[in-house]
Design a protein that fits this description.
By secondary structure, this protein is of the alpha/beta class. The protein is 38% helix and 19% strand. The strands form five sheets. It has a 15-stranded mixed sheet that branches. Residues 315-424 form the Rhodanese domain.
């Protein structure tokens, strides 16, 4: 039934999930179970039970009429209609009463009930699903002139400034046409089958911010019709826009989401991080200064993201920073990668300002070609951070926006925020790396850098970005009629776009994104920022001549791939790629000697850092090779090949790369805390392990918006540190929480980005202890976890705690992000029950209730699936996580002295090898005096079954 492998995977997801959860039954029953699982309400109690059912609101007649109108849009029998009207009216009434909301005719959220009514849910489940959608996916202030629509306008301006300007001129605000899109998740305008397809993809992505990008794609698709209707009235354009989603068809939805994810990858993460409080329940308060987006001139970007984006050599958002402060402030100190554009020139000498802007754009182009760490397609303007001083910068910003320049943003807080951030990070003084970020071009700061911007403490930087930026700055400050000529002269003298060798000052490294794997779309007109011709081979390599047949028949050659080597000039040479267990060889055929070839290159497979293809030429594959150093990954060579059946070829290369990395990993020493490997009975210990994950795949567009891109191939190798914490749990909850905070801080100090705690870390394990230590979420323990994650800036998988909810007890794991936000809550699905007469009897089900939902979260490094203890025994759960893209499975657990030695490590290896993922477990430390003695032995297993602890 599915047309593509992606569709086949998505089509099998529902069936696999239903089988794994033993739901069985009809298709309708399975659909009901799936949406309840996706919304995390499966098994939830009756929220309507406290209500007396009285329909007595002042707006009751309006609610009743609205309920009838909703049902009239569905094709149902008269008997079903009567029951549905009653259900809808009850749900709306109870929601308004419980939330103290006055019902008005213009509200769009009642449309959310239409897709749910088709599932024939009981009234209590209907309300639970409706409330979950409202809470997680409908943003706060989804009202006229609400904050979400100001944010959406900034997003539209960032990607489509011309379209945004046109709508602004017509005084058409986003809430005038998109309030029903956002408030109903498109169910107000889309046919039922399209709404169902949208919701299926949306709930699986579990990313509430996707609504902004889906709305953006719909508007972009209508751009031509909008701009061509310049003479149309405001009302006509609004009506046309509002009806745009009604043109969607079911087969368009996959492309709609793929394009939304592409635009998301080209958007600063600050949009998401600064607006987390729009959705769901937040543990982090919203700052007053962040609330009013209506006054924002353009999209604000945080200083940490600016530094991080340009520190890492990545395909995604990279910023070309433009410092608009007066010359004297810039001279006293500025970001080392910032270009200076004196905003005072705009009023004082407009002609010189025009030349400066032209030079700025030329400098941006040249920096992209040369691969400078200052390069970036996205312009980010930086002021002082003081409102009265930044008025001229705002005029400069307005100038660029009027020219419909895309990817324009502003550094939030300006240079003051930059300084504060660096101080907060303890990066100050000559003895630190502060000199790398803040440099000076004046005598008052000569101890940091020389007059031409070359660092005195780092001579090598003189040939890098600091020299280039500061030379351009002095050219501008001369304020002569030769500004442009001087600028271009400096650029030409420093930029070397061909055969560029990366220096130690170039900061290249791992890619970073918040929701889905990073990918780049290559094109003939685009520039790679770290491209180097294949210049790493020795003279002997170039001269060595071999017999092609002899080499291809060598026993250690695992794969032979005929191809054409493609040089920077465009010349192609018939060649052969040979893949051995550890290396990739390129043999270039010798035209004058048939059957013979030069050994053009030999590269170690573990030095591959990236594999990409061009969107218009998917057979053109680029390999980038490099090595790790203190500043990241240094690119040493770039090779390009035109390969028939490129997908198959890159797949076998990728598989061999992973084997090499796994083998190296299993033999390398691990980073350990001072307490070393946690013994089974140690009172507390932290051990960190470096993990290496890959993201690999191909994608082909079809259907709606065909032609925006054709095919995409990517391979990323990402390294990060995972810490597992093993501690002896006491009966004093406060003591357990205090020790956990200290251990999380210790793990973060060792470079860990993800930290895993053990099962029941805050209380002794056992049925008698669960009721005593149970707490609601959020509560004392989760508050401590939130603070620990925020203070240490890690992803914290909080083991598990006994949770009380609705009169039931659960064994629940909470996960918090580096900002202290609650990402997810997982309830143990499989409860451990055993009853052997005369030997042992232990039944968790007599005290605990089971969960029934998958729990996954996305990090910048990989996607993580969560289970608890006995969940690990069930292979289906791990298979579902693997099929959903998880590369790390975490299981806080507490196996005992019988099951531990028999199955603890065995199950982990099985899950890891079966699904080719990492598996990490964290156990309480062994306490022989406890009523329940845990096995301990917290463990990490890689996809090659090697045990880490």
């Amino acid at each position: 039934m599915a047309d593509t492998p992606d569709e086949a995977l998505l089509g099998s997801w529902d069936q696999d999930l239903a089988e794994a959860l033993d739901s069985g039954g009809s298709d309708m029953e399975m659909e009901r179970g799936i949406i309840q699982i996706a919304l995390n309400v499966s098994g939830k109690g009756d929220s309507l039970s406290p209500w007396d059912g009285v329909l007595d609101l002042p707006e009751q007649t309006l609610i009743h009429n609205r309920s009838q109108q909703l049902i009239d849009q569905l094709k149902v029998s008269e008997e079903e209609r009567r029951d549905m009207v009653s259900d809808v009216e009850s749900v709306i009434t109870f929601y308004c009463k419980s939330r103290n909301i006055s019902f008005t005719p213009e509200l769009s959220w009642p449309h959310l009930l239409k897709p749910l009514l088709g599932l024939q849910l009981p009234r209590s489940d209907l309300y639970n699903c409706f409330y979950a959608v409202m809470n997680k996916y409908i943003p706060r202030e989804c009202v006229p002139n609400g904050r979400p629509f100001h944010l959406y306008r900034l997003l539209l301006q960032y990607h489509e400034p011309e379209l945004c300007s046109f709508l602004d001129t017509k005084k058409i605000t986003p809430d005038s046409y998109a309030i029903n899109w956002m408030g109903s998740l498109f169910s107000s305008h889309c046919p039922p089958d399209v709404t169902q397809a949208v919701w299926d993809c949306y709930l699986r992505q579990a990313d509430p911010f996707l609504i902004f990008f889906l709305m953006l794609i719909i508007l972009v698709n209508a751009k031509e019709a909008i701009l061509s209707d310049d003479g149309g009235s405001k009302e006509d354009i609004i009506n046309m826009l509002e009806a745009s989603p009604s043109h969607l068809e079911s087969e368009d939805i996959e492309d709609l989401f793929s394009l939304a994810q592409y635009y998301q990858s080209k958007t600063p993460l600050s949009l998401r991080k600064m607006n987390q409080n729009l959705f769901g329940s937040s543990l982090v308060a919203l700052k007053e200064e962040d609330t009013d987006l209506s006054q924002a001139l353009c999209l604000p970007v945080s200083v940490p993201e600016i530094l991080q984006a340009n520190q890492l050599q990545q395909d995604g958002v990279r910023f070309f920073v433009v410092d608009c402060r007066p010359a004297e402030q810039y001279n006293a100190g500025h970001l080392s990668t910032a270009f200076h554009l004196d905003s005072d020139l705009m009023l004082q000498t407009p002609s010189e300002f025009a030349l400066s802007v032209k030079s700025l754009l030329e400098a941006q182009k040249q920096s992209l070609e040369s691969g400078s760490i200052a390069s970036g397609e996205h312009l980010c303007f930086m002021g002082s951070g003081r409102e009265e001083e930044d008025m001229y910068m705002n005029m400069v910003l307005a100038h660029f926006l009027q020219k419909n320049k895309e990817y324009v943003s502003i550094a939030k807080g300006g240079f003051m925020a930059l300084q504060k951030h660096l101080v907060d990070m303890n990066i100050e003084g000559l003895d630190s790396s502060y000199i790398h970020w803040i440099v000076s071009t004046s005598g008052s700061h000569s101890s940091l850098s020389s007059a031409d911007g070359e660092s005195l403490s780092s001579p090598g930087d003189g040939k890098g970005v600091k020299s280039l930026v500061n030379k351009m700055t002095f050219a501008l400050k001369s304020k002569s009629v030769n500004v442009k000529e001087k600028m271009i002269s400096f650029i030409e003298n420093t930029a070397t776009p061909v055969d560029r060798h990366v220096s130690s000052s170039d900061r290249v490294g791992k890619p970073y994104r918040g929701v889905k794997p990073v990918f780049s779309i290559g094109d003939e007109e685009e520039y790679d920022t770290d491209e180097i011709d294949s210049s790493s081979m020795s003279d002997d390599d170039r001269k060595e001549i071999v017999n092609i047949q002899t080499w291809t028949n060598k026993p250690d050659v695992k794969h032979h791939i005929p191809c054409n080597e493609v040089k920077e000039t465009g010349h192609m040479f018939p060649s052969h790629l040979l893949i051995t267990a550890t290396h990739m060889y390129c043999l270039r055929e010798i035209a004058s000697r048939k059957g013979f070839a030069y050994i053009q290159s030999r590269q170690a497979l573990n030095s591959v850092v990236k594999i990409t293809s061009k969107k218009k030429h998917p057979e053109l594959i680029t390999f980038k090779f490099g090595s790790n150093n203190s500043t990241g990954v240094e690119i040493s060579a770039v090779e390009r090949y035109l390969i028939p059946n490129a997908g198959d070829a890159t797949k076998v290369i990728k598989q061999q790369i992973m084997k090499v990395l796994d083998a190296l990993e299993s033999s390398a020493p691990f980073s350990r805390s001072p307490s070393g490997v946690p013994p089974a009975g140690s009172t507390a210990a932290v051990l960190t392990v470096k993990l290496c994950v890959s993201v690999f795949g191909t994608w082909r567009a079809h259907g709606w918006l065909r032609g925006l891109w054709d095919r995409l191939l990517w391979l990323w190798l990402l390294e990060f540190r995972l810490a597992v914490v093993q501690l002896q749990v006491s009966r004093v909850k406060a003591d357990n929480l205090s020790r956990v905070r200290g251990l999380v801080k210790e793990a973060a100090g060792q470079g860990s980005k993800v930290v895993l705690l053990p099962e029941c870390f805050n209380s002794p394990y056992g049925s008698s202890f669960f009721p005593e230590y149970a707490e609601r979420i959020p509560g004392e323990s989760t508050q401590a976890l939130s603070e620990a994650a925020r203070d240490s800036k890690v992803y914290l998988v909080g083991g598990s705690i006994p949770e009380e909810d609705g009169g039931k007890l659960y064994n629940s794991c909470t996960v918090f992000g580096p900002d202290g936000e609650l990402i997810l809550k997982h309830r143990k699905i499989h409860l451990f029950d055993i009853d052997i007469p005369g030997k042992i009897r232990f039944r968790e089900s007599e005290t605990l209730s089971p969960g029934n939902s998958l729990s996954m979260f996305q990090t910048p490094f990989c996607k993580v699936g969560v289970g608890i203890c006995y969940d690990m025994r069930f292979a289906e759960l791990a298979q579902l996580y693997s099929r959903e893209g998880c590369q790390l499975l975490v299981y806080p657990g507490a196996f005992n002295m019988t099951t531990g030695p028999a199955h603890w490590e065995l199950l982990q290896r099985g899950r890891a090898v079966d699904n080719q993922v990492y598996v990490a477990t964290a156990s309480p430390a062994r306490d022989e005096t406890s009523s329940y003695v845990a096995w301990g032995h917290s463990t990490v297993v890689n996809p090659w079954y090697n045990t880490k602890l």
